[in-house]
Amino acid sequence: IDCAMSLTSSNSGSGSSKRRVSYFYHSDVGLYYYGPGHPMKPHRLRMTHQLILSYGLYRKMEVYRPKICTEKDLQRFHSEDYIDFLKKISPETMKTYSSQMQKFNVGEYTDCPVFDGIYEFCSTYTGCSLDGAVKLNHGLTDIAVNWSGGLHHAKKMEASGFCYVNDIVLAILELLKYHSRVLYIDIDIHHGDGVEEAFYTTDRVMTVSFHKFGDFFPGTGDIRDVGAKTGKGYSVNVPLAEGIDDLSYEMVFKPVIEKVMDVYRPTAIVLQCGADSLTGDRLGCFNVTIRGHASCVEFVKSFGVPTMVLGGGGYTVRNVARCWAYETSVLLNTPISDDIPYNDFFEYYAPDFKLHLTPSPTMENHNKPEQLVNITNRILQNLKNIQGAPSVQMHPIPPDFIIKNFEINEDKAMDDKSEPINKEGGLKPEHPAEFYDNDKDNDRHMDVDNNDSSAPQEEEKSTSINNNESDSMNVEL
Predict the structure, then answer these.
(1) What is the pLDDT of residues 312-345, one digit of tens each?
(2) DSSP labels for 320-353?
(3) Catalytic residue at 356?
(4) Which position among 26, 152, 153, 191 bears the catalytic label?
(5) What pTM value is reported for the model?
(6) Measured at the alpha carbon of residue 51, what is the angle toward residues 208 and 313, in degrees to the nearest 5?
(7) Which distant-in-sequence residues (6+ apart) come within 8 Å of 205 by Cβ?
(8) Which three-class secondary structure state does DSSP give residue 144?
């Protein structure tokens, strides 16, 4: 990937200070359906959003409804013929494009099925990531959150591992317009192969992936894979065995990331928070709890570098929603109850209706302490060989992905009354000095019914997806 045009800038601040968090969500993204029996369920995004609403976390963030990507935006990484194929393929046109389906690894006998709205789905979640990158580039936020993004397996010319468009690569390319060095961290149980491959020969991006290695998809991510050419030493792979728990994960994660930050000194971070590394995941085999997973997020946040936080894998949907809602609260420094509040998907959390998970007592941890020490030491030694943080020459900055037309989130998620809008088109967070702890409700003595009317509910959508926005707000940046 050509990363030639850039401008070095750093908006980092203190990790302990109050940091501005922006949340990017499109209400259509959770309505798409991979098909019966497929483990990838976009519905988990609606469940996550509902927890963010019912816990009241949305009041503390600026909430954005992003623009949809154009095909030219997607072609900044993906090939023109692949994107053209994604635009045309549907369950009705599969016979017409059967030869191309095989070429692009889509359809029957692959893990990337054809479903209605496949191109719109990709354009939507990628738009969220690109919007977040633009906000970070202009110093309009400190942390950009897009739980619908993080699809790290997609390649330049083919789909892979439930991923069709690699929003991470596209977001990093956007960040590189302003940032001299971008660090990518991946805590999904699967190796972040698509992102690593895209930046394997450049020192402008360092990729660090913590993943299950061995007889496990995608089969890449050996500790010996360290990059090539100019990028030699800038790909870091941490291979782990099944059953790893919170303590073992932290034993590797913190020293590696601390050394990476010291040596590479990134000016922006992209953190992929795949939740399939949690205990009890349908496809995973780790034994990490939500608190253990979130401690990685908190540690990365502590460095005070502008950060994009993305979703990724995660196939036990109730646990994915639990995890990402809790990690949203961690990013906001806002404690939330272990008792899940009533929401549209409350029954999914039966029988205990609790937020946090208990690790499996019967799962054996195959990561011996001495093995983890050896892996950590080997990686730290590799990092010592890097001769300081790379620098880049000054170049003209290319145009932003979006320079106007940010659209506000008109989801019923927000108060029926007029909400305060910032100059970038986002819903303003509630001021920390505000005395209200609900939606400006002074009648605290009144009974609240079981539907928790103070928590806004997500608007019900029909199964047909409509991308026409009726009440958008055009804002010049």
Answers:
(1) 999 999 999 999 999 999 999 999 999 999 999 9
(2) HHHHHHHHHHHHTT----SBPPP-TTGGGGTTT-
(3) no
(4) 153
(5) 0.84
(6) 30
(7) 3, 172, 176, 181, 182, 183, 184, 199, 231, 234
(8) strand
